[in-house]
Design a protein that fits this description.
The structure is a single chain. Helix 24 packs antiparallel against helix 25 and helix 25 (468-481) packs parallel to helix 27. It is built from 29 helices and no strands. By secondary structure, it is mostly helical.
């Protein structure tokens, strides 16, 4: 009897130990996912699932490891996640965790969001207890699924609703708040404040949760606020020095600013990460940033010859290296492969595409389109301005300034800018004026190009009313559009500009007034529809102003004075003849003295 009891006790102890080891292994896999160590997570969780092929919780987390590895650039892993959940269902593992995982895959495959939600609702409903309370863990998993991917994937608001409920049911889990904050950010930058509140709540739940500090730092980095970025990234490192994602973001920040600082952070990132395709890629990327293009190329070729041949960003690295080594054709070929096979892109990927395509005759339009995408997806205002200027410069050099639609799109991107640097307004304005000169001769094309240039000049003047260039660009646009002065487009812009220039006594201002008035004199004498005597009177006023801004005896002064005197004599002669004959009005055609 004692022997039987001892045997039973031993069996239970072994069973308990095995269960504990199983749980510990799953938890370790989840922890590896948190640290970005997807390779380690997959290895650990595959072992668990192999031992317990019908444990839904383990299967769910194995699928999550595949999905995170897919986001890291291993494109084949999305299919593995889909197969993992599908095989579980076919094996009879009909469990809320599997339903949520399957819905998550649908989102990442850009599938039917309503079908994904059906899976989620089925999972949530099936876990409600007797008192109607849902499972906080399942709600969090649903929120996690909708937080994953870009802003067009999933339903962020739906995720927010589920995560808020999860936070009410579970007051300790900081991961709920991380997913909540990410969902807020997917709604747009105007929800950044709500995201920060969520991440701060995660810190309140667990002050050692480095991901929360890191996420706040990311927001400030997107706002180009380095001081605040450094503050929160430093807090993340203090909370957990092993949290590799913060070192990765620091590397990205410094990779084009300070190659020595970048080296420090890429080393820390590698030291705290799995040695996998991702770390191999960033080591090769650093060599490129350091100007060691052939060494970077050699690393890339080694990756392509091994297990990392399908790593999504490898083709981009080849494109960068070939471009710097002088082979733009090969670079373009690899860039095309990258955009054809990768699923996630960064703003500077599009910027590089724009710069590369600009090197090929006839591809300026493609180059501009890539830069427009960069403008759309980048959240940093300073970067948007760089992309706008790059696009304008590309079209200038390529002689593609007849592409008014491209310039129109670029102008639209300025609407969310509070105030551009003056130099950027100047570049955009002068490019738009040049576009008028190369526009087709039909009036519709010319007016379209002129409307764009005029809108840029007006924005320039509104933001920098004390600077002369905005006024000059506006006048030049009107003059170039009104090719023979017949339309009189420049009358109002010149009147506004001269009011500004007459406050200035500089030679530039005086010359601007003289040139502008000369244009109007030609208009009034040759194209104005008013009565001829009134045309002369307008011209005389302008010629007097021209004489007043030029030095006595100068060519300009002599021209203005003599021409004005001739017109005054003609008007006087005309008025005398009208008075002698008893006529009135202002009609007739006086002839100036020659």
């Amino acid at each position: 009897m004692k022997t039987m009891k001892k045997t039973a006790f031993t069996f239970l102890a072994v069973a308990f130990a095995s269960s504990f080891a199983f749980s510990q292994t799953v938890d370790e896999g989840i922890k590896d996912i948190y640290y970005g160590k997807t390779k380690s997570a997959i290895q650990a969780l595959e072992k668990v699932v192999a031992g317990k092929p019908k444990d839904a919780y383990s299967i769910y987390w194995l699928g999550q490891a595949y999905l995170r590895d897919y986001e890291a650039g291993n494109k084949d892993q999305l299919a593995k996640a889909a197969v993992t959940y599908q095989n579980a269902l076919q094996a009879g593992v009909n469990d809320p965790w599997i339903w949520v995982g399957s819905g998550n895959v649908i989102i990442m495959q850009n599938g039917d969001i309503n079908k994904a939600k059906q899976n989620f609702e089925q999972a949530i409903t099936s876990t409600k207890g007797k008192k109607g309370a849902e499972s906080a863990d399942i709600l969090n998993a649903v929120g996690r699924a909708n937080a994953m991917g870009d802003s067009k994937q999933g339903d962020a608001q739906y995720g927010i609703d589920k995560l808020k409920r999860a936070a009410e049911l579970d007051l300790k889990n900081p991961d709920i708040d991380i997913n909540l904050g990410i969902c807020y950010l997917k709604l747009g930058s105007d929800h950044g404040g709500e995201a920060v509140l969520a991440f701060n709540d995660a810190i309140a739940r667990d002050p050692k949760y480095a991901a929360a500090y890191y996420r706040i730092g990311l927001i400030y980095q997107s706002q180009n606020n380095k001081e605040a970025m450094d503050e929160w990234y430093a807090k993340a490192i203090v909370a957990d020095p092993a949290y590799a994602p913060v070192y990765y973001e620091y590397y990205r920040y410094y990779s084009e600013k300070d190659v020595n600082a970048a080296k420090e952070y890429i080393d820390k990132f590698v030291a705290n990460s799995d040695q996998d395709c991702k770390t191999s890629y960033f080591q090769a990327d650093y060599l490129f940033r350091a100007g060691k293009y052939q060494e970077s190329m050699d690393r890339a070729k080694a990756m392509a010859a091994g297990d990392c041949k399908t790593f999504a960003r490898l083709n981009l690295l080849f494109a960068y290296d070939y471009d710097r080594l002088g082979d733009s054709v090969q670079a373009r070929s690899y860039l095309q492969k990258f955009f054809a096979t990768a699923t996630e892109f960064q703003p500077d990927d599009y910027e590089f595409a724009g710069m590369l395509y600009a090197k090929f005759p006839g591809d300026a339009d493609t180059a501009a389109k890539y830069l427009e995408i960069a403008i759309d997806v980048d959240t940093i205002k300073a970067d948007k301005i760089v992309y706008i200027n790059t696009a304008v410069n590309i079209m200038q050099k390529a002689g593609e300034l007849t592409q008014e639609e491209n310039l129109m799109k670029i102008r639209e991107k300025l609407r969310d800018q509070t105030k551009l640097p003056e130099s950027d307004y100047y570049k955009l304005g002068t490019a738009a004026v040049a576009a008028i000169g190369t526009a087709p001769a039909d009036s519709i094309s010319i007016i379209k190009a002129y409307t764009l240039a005029d809108s840029i000049a007006k924005a320039y003047i509104a933001d920098y009313p004390d600077k002369p260039q905005g006024y000059t660009i506006r006048v030049n646009a009107a003059k170039k559009a009104d090719r023979d002065t017949a339309w009189g487009l420049a009358i109002e812009p010149i009147t506004t500009a001269n009011a500004f220039f007459l406050k200035d006594t500089s030679a530039f201002a005086k010359n601007s007034v003289f040139v502008n008035d000369y244009y109007l004199v030609l208009y009034y004498l040759n194209h104005s529809k008013m009565a001829r005597i009134d045309q002369y009177r307008k011209a005389i006023t302008l010629l007097d102003e021209m004489a007043s801004v030029t030095a006595p005896g100068s060519d300009g002064n002599t021209f203005a004075t003599k021409t004005g005197d001739s017109l005054k004599a003609a008007v006087a002669k005309y008025e005398a003849s009208r008075n002698k004959s008893g006529g009135g009005g202002s009609g007739g055609s006086p002839k100036p003295n020659k």
